[in-house]
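Progress against Task 2.4 (sequence-to-structure conversion) is shown through the following example record, which the project officer requested during the mid-term review.
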Amino acid sequence: MKLMHGTFSSLPPLTDAEIRAQIAYAIGNGWPVAIEHTDDPHPRNVYWEMWDRPMFDEHEPDACLAEVNRCRAAMPDRYVRVTAFDASYGRQTTALSFLVGRPAHEPGFRLDRAEAPGRRLAYSVHSFAADAPGGERYATEPAPPGRARRKEH
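Structure tokens generated for the chain above:
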């Protein structure tokens, strides 16, 4: 299952030239760029881990792309995204966000349905990645003996 998350998610993976063009667009608009990564791509997980610091003073798209490539090389089994922030509203606002890296295997999601009073239905999204502990979510082998996989919610 391909995770649809952020701008351009319905397109084929972006090439480095296309990523660089989007970073140049963000910098041209005065939006600082940050690189983030996670192993839990749940739609409500908006607080991904930061790769280094946001590049507030970086005005060179090639330097930002080099950081993207370093992050992708160091985190091949994680989702990696580029986020550009617009501070013109007086608060940190995401102006652009798109995936630049994803794990080879994406476990996907399940939609859980529960009946509530009055014949109402309640739905929740369950990420199969969260069935394993952080850092092991995309491992191809089971957890080592004595380390049971826990269920996170």
